[in-house]
Amino acid sequence: MPLPVVDTRPLFRPLIGEIAAFLRTLSPDDWLRPTVAGSWRVRDVAAHLLDTALRRLSSGRDGWRSPNGPRLTGAEPDFVARINELNAVWIRAADRLSPRVLTDLYAVVGVELADSFEKARLDAPAVFGVSWAGESRSAAWLDVGREFTEVWHHGAQIRDAVGAGPFPDPAWLHAVLEIALHALPHAYGRLHGEPGLAVVVEISGPAGGTWTLRYDRRWDIDEGESRRAAARATIEDEAAWRLWFNALPPSAAESAVRIEGDPSLVRPLLSARSVIV
């Protein structure tokens, strides 16, 4: 069966509430701990969550386009550099805000963001195409789902940095992985084969499942398992999100995936990313 539409709209409110409540438990030292997000500390990841929520409300809910800011489509040759600069400018400015102010602002803005998404139509055109899925135009449900994965994985980075373990609800991670899987056909775009070629992707753990990548002039991904697959990749759910959200070094990624069959059919999976990098 083709991948279903994933409705993440009702998940924002409990997830954002969980993140805000967790931020209130952190010690001053915790806020300065390093994370897997490059040079960002916990406070920087929290500031980024606030920034993306504010930007999403401004552009998506309010239709605001800054007359002085770049209007990015995802097709610019320096798109990633420009996004990184937008992020860096905010992080530098947010360094003057206390942890309490960051948390209080995120808690308030997060409610507004959840309200906005809960009113969104899943079948409407997306505000932004999901570039890591190879799309310049996307349905709203995938764009909203992409935003959910952003909130979830940054929250997970914070929890990981302070040794708090996974989020309590594995259904959130399952939704994240279902959205992230849309990156795989795009990642396999340069790999060609005979029609019917199939690769099974099994994610173990409470948030896991089984899917099949299949080739017929282009790659698609379905729910379930093909019995005639030429290769099989098995990875734990906690390792899968780290892989596709750029939180595993290459050596760790290779050891995290158990391969059966033709290894060359699994390499694109290792390089797939469900974030802009």
- Helix vs. strand class: alpha+beta
Count all strands and give the number.
5
CATH homologous superfamily descriptor of the largest domain: dinb family like domain
The largest sheet is: 5 strands, mixed
Q: Any idea what the shape is?
A: globular
Helix content: 40-55%
N-to-C SSE string, H for helix and E for strand = HHHHHHHEEEEHHEH
Strand order of the largest sheet: 3-2-1-4-5
What count of helical segments does DSSP give? 10
Average predicted local confidence, pLDDT: 94
- By CATH, the architecture of the largest domain is named Up-down Bundle
| CATH domain class of the largest domain | Mainly Alpha
What is the CATH third-level topology name of the largest domain? Four Helix Bundle (Hemerythrin (Met), subunit A)
**Rg from alpha-carbon coordinates:** 19 Å
Number of domains: 2
* Straight-line distance between termini: 30 Å
Architecture blueprint of SSEs:
Blueprint: H1 12-23, H2 42-61, H3 79-94, H4 99-118, H5 140-161, H6 170-180, H7 183-187, E1 197-204, E2 209-215, E3 219-223, E4 231-236, H8 237-244, H9 250-256, E5 258-261, H10 267-271
Parallel strand pairs: 1-4
Antiparallel strand pairs: 1-2, 2-3, 4-5
Helix pairs in contact: 1-4, 1-5, 2-3, 2-4, 2-5, 5-6, 6-8
